[in-house]
Design a protein that fits this description.
Helix 2 packs across helix 3, helix 3 packs across helix 4 and helix 4 packs parallel to helix 5. The protein has nine helices and 21 strands. By secondary structure, it is α+β, with helices and mostly antiparallel strands. A six-stranded mixed sheet has the order 6-7-8-3-9-10, sandwiched between helices. It binds adenosine-5'-triphosphate. Adenosine-5'-triphosphate (ATP) binds next to helix 1.
Amino acid sequence: MAYLTLQGINKIYPNGFHAVHDFNLEIEQGEFIIFVGPSGCGKSTTLRMIAGLENISKGEFYIDGVRANEKGPREREVAMVFQSYALYPHMSVYDNMAFGLTLQGVDDDIIEQRVMDTARILGLTDYLDRKPRALSGGQRQRVAVGRAIIRKVGIFLMDEPLSNLDAKQRVTMRSEITDIHRKVGATTIYVTHDQTEAMTMADRIVVMKDGYIQQVGTPYELYFKPVNMFVAGFIGEPPMNFITADVQNGAIKVGSTTLALSNVLAADKLATYEGKKIIFGFRPEVIELGAKADSYVLKADVELTELLGDNTNVYVDIEGVKSILKVDPHDTPEMDTNIEFSIPYKSVYLFDGDTEMVIDTNK
Ligand code: ATP
C-alpha cells in the first residue's frame, strides 16, 4: 500500500494544450479514489501522469513521501487496468496472469501459488485453461484485473475498466471491484465518466471539468453539499433541476408564481442578490405532489411519464421551465394534465448567477 501526494500538478501537451491545471490532492493509503467528469476534462491525463506514462509539466508528485516525478512506470510500482483489457489472445488465462511475474523471473512455484490465489479471489479458477476469446466480457475484465493485482503492488490504477461491458455486467463488476479492493487493500485510483460508478464505489470522488478540480469529497458530500452548479448537476440521476431568474423584491418569479427567497436565505445575504441573477436548484426526488407546508408550491404541465418500476420520472414544464420530477409509481400523474407540486425549503439549493458557486442557505 502507498499514499500519494499531488501538489500543483499541471499538464501542458507538446502542442501547447493545457489539459490539467493546478491539481492538488492527498490520497491516503488504501483509499479508493475516483476521478469523474465529462469527456476531455483531464481524468486520463492525470492518471497517466501518476502511472509515469506522461511526464508532469509542472508540480510535485510523491509516493510515500518520496518525490516520484522522474521515476519510470516500473519504479513507481503501479499496476494499471485499461478500458481495452489488452489480454494476450494466444495465451491461456493462467499464462495471461502469470506473464508479468515470469518476466520478473519469479520462481514457478511462487507464480503458481499467486495465480491460484488471484483466480480464487476473482472466481476464475475454472477458467484458467481457456483463451480470452472463450470468455465473456466480464470474465475477460476479471483476468485483466487479475493480471494487475497478482503483482502485489501498492498502487492500482484503472481507466474506465467497465466501459466495454453491458449494463448488467457493469453492475456486477462494480461490486466485484469494490470487493477486490477490500480484500487486496491497494491504494486505488479509478477513472470514469459515469457518476453512478463514482457514487457506488469511491471512498472519495474528485470531480473534474476542463482540466480543473471542481470538488473533492465523499459521495455523500458531493450529493448533499455540492460547491457549485456543475457538481450539483453532474452528480445525481436524473440531474438536479435548475431555474434561473432575477431577484426582485427578495423573490424570483417562475411564470405566474412568486417564490420568496427569505424562506431559504438570510435577509442580509438576500439583500446582496437584489437585482441579480440567481439559480434555484432542486433534485427530482425531493418533491411531493400537491401543496405542502414549509415548501415552495409550483404548477406544471405533465409532458411525459416514464415508469421505471421503483419510481416514475415525470417530465414537466413549470410555466416555461423544463424539469424532471421523481414520484412514487402509484402516484404517476396523467400525461397532458396540470399538477401542483411542493419543494421543501430544506431541499432547495441556490447558486450565484455569475459565479455558479453555491450560496449558503438556511439548511
Ligand atoms: P475521456 O473520458 O474522453 O477519456 P478525459 O477526461 O480522460 O476524457 P484526457 O484524455 O485526459 O480526458 O484529455 C484531456 C484533454 O487533453 C482533452 O481535451 C484531450 O483532447 C487533450 N489531449 C489528450 N492527449 C493529448 C495529446 N497527446 N496532445 C494534445 N492534447 C491531448
